[in-house]
Structures are given as structure tokens and as C-alpha cells.
Amino acid sequence: MSSLPLWLQALRERFRLKPDDLLRDRAYRRLWASILMSSTGAQITMLALPLTAAVLLNATPQQMGLLTALELAPFVLLSLPGGVWLDRVRKLPVYVVGELTLAAALLTVPLAQWLGWLTMGWMYVVAFVLGSVHTVAGSAAQVVLTQVVPRERLVEAHAKNALASSGPEVAGPAVGGLLIKAVGPPLALVVDAVLLAASALVLRGLRIGETVQAASGRSFKDELLTGLHFVRGNALLPTLAWVIGAWQFCHYTAMVVQILVASRELGLSPGAIGLAYVALGVGTVWGSLKGHAISERLGPGPCLVLGIAVTGAGWVLLALAPAGPLGVLAFGVMLGCFGLGAVLIFINFLSLRQAVTPSPLLGRMTSTMRWLTVLPGAPGALLGGWLGQHLGLRWALGFAGVSALLLAVAAWRSATLRAVTELPRVADEPIEATAP
User: Fold this and answer.
1) In 3D, which of 167, 192, 34 has the Cα closest to residue 104?
2) Residue 103, CA atoms < 13 Å, CB-side half-sphere
3) Contacts by 58-63 with C-beta closer than 8 Å and gap 24+?
4) Residue of 182, 181, 180, 193 lying closest to 133 (CA atoms)
5) What is the rounded average pLDDT of the residues 134-158?
């Protein structure tokens, strides 16, 4: 008989892993731990990088828009050729090197400040390097997941991955805000660099049976066109591409101004902004815990549409909120809505696109879809900066919110997406079968 108090026994039973839980698999557990560490650091960078520009370098809204656009530019330039290259190499080493490269790039910011070289030009270069790594190594990371987890469990895996990110999103912003207050935004980036190095160390111990496709003898151009042809010819992927691409346009329009709204219109300090971002983590945690069940109940397609509507409602709320305590509350609610909505969007979007793609095409499909869906983000960021500078910060948020709500209506009217009530299945097929 256990000597533990009854409440402690009940708590242990509540969190005991089920016999078939993914976290009982050693390979997935290491991948999950890596995501946890890199996500914790990412919460610091999410605040420290824009705050370095906005507070330390006094960036204008248009400069903030350009900073975000330059981080997105590599998706336009590198996604398609990167996908062809990824299908020719082992993905895990690319993922590991990517984590280390991110760490090195972030360390240059406090170094530049110490040397007196830190300018917006330096920040633009760092943003471009970060975007380049996220483009190639980020695609590799998504493919690695399919090598660790069976396809029929992808929604569950993405929900657990979101949970690994949501814990840091609850505590990370508050800790990041205090860290930024204590040492300044640039030095706070050192913590993220250390966590990224630890993530790379964990990934190096990951054991997966990855087989690189034998050289087909086809040209780089032909293989790139194969990926494009597959996405275009699939019944579901084009719809996912335009819906998520349009949402990314709205997302980046809002993102470039939301910290400026908090700091310049609501008067929040960097530490207070960090505390407010706890609400983002709360929304993400709730979405991570309930997202799989909601997806099973509504279906992946309708659940994705619901996520778009939730994020749009949050942006509209903050655009209309008055200054003062109610405005601060609205800022927190907006962040919570974004956290919840983004989880509902991406656990279904990522699972759907992976479920319908044969293994030999996963690299090219992932890069092609990332290219198509992130491409609208750069003009969205530039538009958000322009609207914020010439019409007002709230106009940019309002435009993003109303556009997202209209997008949710349009996506729901799409029979292709509305009809996806369960995860599709596809058998792996020879690469030649999808050649243009």
C-alpha cells in the first residue's frame, strides 16, 4: 500500500502516461525535449529581438516591418531549392546544424552592442540569417517528425509538440521580461543561444532509421518541378496553401505593430510586456491540451477554420480597446486568442499536408508549402508597418483582424476544407509516379 497522501496519489495517476503514449517512445521523447528547450529560448528571443529594435534602436513602424520582412525573405528565395536538396540528404544533421547556427547568429547581437556596432542594419542581417535557418532547418525538423511518429498519430504528435512549446510560453515571457529588465534585450539573447546549443546536443543522440533516396539521375530543376506538380495536383494542398497563406498575411500585418501598441499606446514597460505574454502561453497550453480532442470532434478542416476566426477576433478586440487598464486586459486577451487559434490552425495544417504526401516527396512538399504560405507574410509585414506609421497602429491591427474573420468565412465556404472530417491516408509511392 502506498504511503503517499491520497491527493498526491490522485495527482500522480492524473499525469501518469498511458501505455501507448508517444512520450514512452525514446526517440520521440528526445525530440520533444529538444523542442521544449528551443521553445523556451524562443520566448526570450520573441521579446528581446523586437524590443532591441523598438526600445534600444528606436525603430519606426516601417523599420519594424522591414525587419520582419527580411526574416521572411529567405522563405521566398530558399524554400523551393531547399526542398529538393533536403530530399537528397539526411534531415537530422541539417536540423542539428540549424540549431547551432541560430545560436551563433543570436550571440552576434550582444557582441555588436558591446563593440558599439549595433545598428538596424546589423539587426536586418541577423533577421535574414535567422530566416534562412528557419527555412531550411525548419523544413528538415518537420520531416524528422514523420520519421519518428507513425502518420496516423501526426495530429497527436503535433499537439504534444505544441504542449512542449506552450509550457515555455506561459513562464517564458515573464522570465524573459525580468531577464530583459535586468540585463537588457541584447544580453537576454545569450540565454536562448545556450538553450539552442543544448537542443542540438539532445538531437545528436536521436536514433532514427533514415534512408536517403538514391540519386534518380534527374536534374535539380526536374526534381523541383516534381514537388510543385505534386502540390498543384493534390486535391487538398492548394486549398490549404491559399487559406494559410492569407492567414499569414493577416498574422504578420498584426505582429509588426502589436509590441508597438503595447509600449507606445498602452505605456507598458518591457517587463510588463513580458508578463502580458504569459496570456499567449495560457492560450497555447489550452489549445495543446484540447486541440486533439477538438480536431477529432469537428474534423481537421473545420478545426483549422475555427483557429483562424479566434485569432481574428483577438486582433479586432485590441484594435477597439481603449487605453488604460481595459486596454492592457485586451492586450492579454488578444495574446491568449492568438495562442489558442494558432495551435488549432497548425496542428491540423501540418498533419493534413504530411498525411497526404508520400515519403519520397516530403522534403519538397514541406518546402513548397512553406514557400506558398509564408510568401504573403513579407507584404503583410510591410503593409502593417505602413498602416501603423501613416494611419495609426490600431488601424493595422483592425485591418488584420477584420481580414482574418472574412478569411474564416471564405475558408468555411470551401467545400474541400469543410469536408475534411478525418485525417486522410496515403500509401507511399515511387517518386516517378508524381513526375510532371
Assistant:
1) 192
2) 20
3) 59/120, 60/385, 60/389, 61/256, 61/257, 61/260, 61/384, 61/385, 61/386, 61/388, 61/389, 61/393, 61/396, 62/382, 62/385, 62/386, 62/388, 62/389, 63/120, 63/385
4) 193
5) 79
Whether residue 124 has pLDDT greater than 80 = yes
Task: Provide the grid cell at 65.
Answer: 516591418
Per-residue pLDDT tens over the stretch 331-364: 888 999 998 999 899 888 888 888 888 877 777 7
Q: Which residues contact 95 (CB under 8 A, 6 or more apart)?
A: 137, 140, 141, 144, 203
What does the block give as the cell for 92?
537530422
- Per the CB < 8 A criterion, the answer to whether 399 and 259 are in contact is no
Decide: 59 and 48 in contact? Cβ < 8 Å. no
Q: What does the pLDDT look like over 243-301, one tens digit per residue?
A: 999 999 999 999 888 878 887 888 777 767 777 777 877 888 788 778 888 888 888 88
Q: Which of 44, 130, 133 is nearest to 95 (CA)?
A: 133
Position 130: which residue type? L
Of the candidates 249, 258, 393, 384, the residue with the CA atom closest to the CA atom of residue 333? 258
Burial class (CB in 10 A: 0-12, 13-18, 19+), 28: buried
Grid cell 478586440 in the structure block, residue: 317
Q: Tell me what the mean pLDDT of segment 109-118 comes to.
A: 88
The answer to whether 353 and 222 are in contact (CB under 8 A) is no
* Helix 26-51 with 154-183: angle, nearest 10 deg: 40
Contacts of 111 (CB under 8 A, 6+ apart): none
Residue 284's identity, in one-letter code, is: T
| CA distances, 9 to each of 16, 24, 164 (Å) | 10, 21, 24
